[in-house]
């Protein structure tokens, strides 16, 4: 582009330097999804197709952006390390909607807000992810009880009242005694959310010259495992090596 006397304004774009040696977390969250999920007839409390669509969007972005080392999603939100643009997420969400909801017309354009947070140490980063996974667990337990009560004929207000002040033991007990549901058998995707990491696989192929050659295949893996305890981080020790 030709220089002009106006071009100096471009310098304003570069006056914020990215802090080195820190983690960047971008948290995306669907805007007004309480209404959006109702308007589009999502299964309550957990619409599996909707979570699959969220995971699909995150997976596509991660495969294009190797700098994102991990992504964690639950409900209508997605946390990503290193900045990505929320527009990419929204446009994937819209583009693949009909693949995940073949019988539901998308009634208006969905949007996701994004905030970027800097965490200076590995401990902060792990605590951040633990916070989101604990939030997933707490909300899912509450929502599972709430919707079981509603499905059994209890009114919304009444169900809220019944759950007010209950701890997780009470909720487990309620699910088990009233609805014969063992909370631990509910799918892990609902209880733990989704963890996306890069997977690098090496394998051997036979070349046309009949010799063996090593090949590498990169993909994004979707897990529904615990990320609060050390086990996950020990098994994937390269994640925190930056
Ligand atoms: P980046 O992701 O870095 O922005 P880019 O390929 O989008 O890369 P830009 O400098 O933003 O690069 O340039 C936009 C490109 O899109 C140009 O090649 C421009 O000619 C093309 N383009 C944009 N709008 C139109 C349009 N309406 N019709 C034809 N070409 C267009
Ligand atoms: P905001 O714009 O402030 O984020 P919101 O209405 O999106 O408002 P959230 O706190 O983000 O509020 O809540 C997300 C809503 O979307 C909750 O009501 C949740 O139950 C619903 N939701 C998200 N994902 C699913 C899903 N997979 N299945 C069913 N409901 C879902
Ligand atoms: Mg341009
Ligand atoms: Mg929100
Ligand atoms: Mg939201
Ligand atoms: Mg949310």
Automatic annotation (TrEMBL):
Keywords: GTP-binding, Magnesium, Metal-binding, Nucleotide-binding, Nucleotidyltransferase, Transferase, tRNA processing
Cofactor: Mg(2+)
Lineage: Eukaryota, Fungi, Fungi incertae sedis, Zoopagomycota, Kickxellomycotina
The Thg1 C-terminal domain, residue ranges: 123-228
Protein name: tRNA(His) guanylyltransferase
GO BP, sorted A to Z: tRNA modification
Pfam families linked: Thg1, Thg1C
Transmembrane intervals: none
Cross-referenced InterPro entries: Thg1_C_dom, tRNAHis_GuaTrfase_cat, tRNAHis_GuaTrfase_Thg1, tRNAHis_GuaTrfase_Thg1_sf
GO molecular function list: GTP binding; magnesium ion binding; tRNA guanylyltransferase activity
Broadest EC class assigned to this enzyme: transferase
Lineage: superkingdom: Eukaryota
Binding site for Mg(2+) 2: 29, 76
Cofactor binding remark: Binds 2 magnesium ions per subunit.
Stated family: Belongs to the tRNA(His) guanylyltransferase family.
UniProt: GTP binding residues: 75-76
């Amino acid at each position: 582009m030709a220089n002009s006397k106006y071009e100096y304004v471009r310098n304003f774009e570069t006056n914020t330097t990215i802090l080195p040696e820190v983690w960047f977390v971008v948290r995306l969250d669907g805007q007004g999804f309480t209404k959006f999920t109702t308007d589009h007839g999502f299964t309550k409390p957990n619409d599996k197709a909707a979570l699959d669509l969220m995971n699909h969007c995150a997976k596509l972005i991660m495969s294009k952006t190797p700098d994102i080392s991990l992504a964690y999603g639950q409900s209508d939100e997605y946390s990503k390390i290193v900045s990505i643009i929320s527009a990419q997420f929204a446009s994937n969400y819209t583009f693949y909607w009909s693949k995940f909801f073949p019988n539901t017309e998308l009634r208006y354009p969905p949007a996701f807000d994004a905030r970027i947070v800097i965490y200076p140490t590995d401990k902060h980063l792990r605590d951040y992810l633990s916070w989101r996974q604990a939030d997933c667990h707490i909300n899912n337990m509450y929502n599972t009880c709430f919707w079981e009560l509603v499905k059994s004929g209890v009114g919304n207000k009444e169900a809220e009242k019944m759950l007010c002040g209950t701890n997780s033991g009470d909720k487990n007990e309620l699910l088990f005694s009233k609805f014969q549901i063992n909370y631990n058998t509910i799918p892990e995707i609902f209880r733990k959310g989704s963890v996306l990491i890069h997977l690098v696989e090496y394998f051997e192929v036979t070349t046309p010259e009949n010799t063996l050659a090593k090949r590498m295949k990169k993909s994004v893996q979707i897990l529904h495992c615990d990320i609060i305890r050390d086990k996950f981080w020990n098994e994937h020790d390269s994640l925190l090596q930056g």
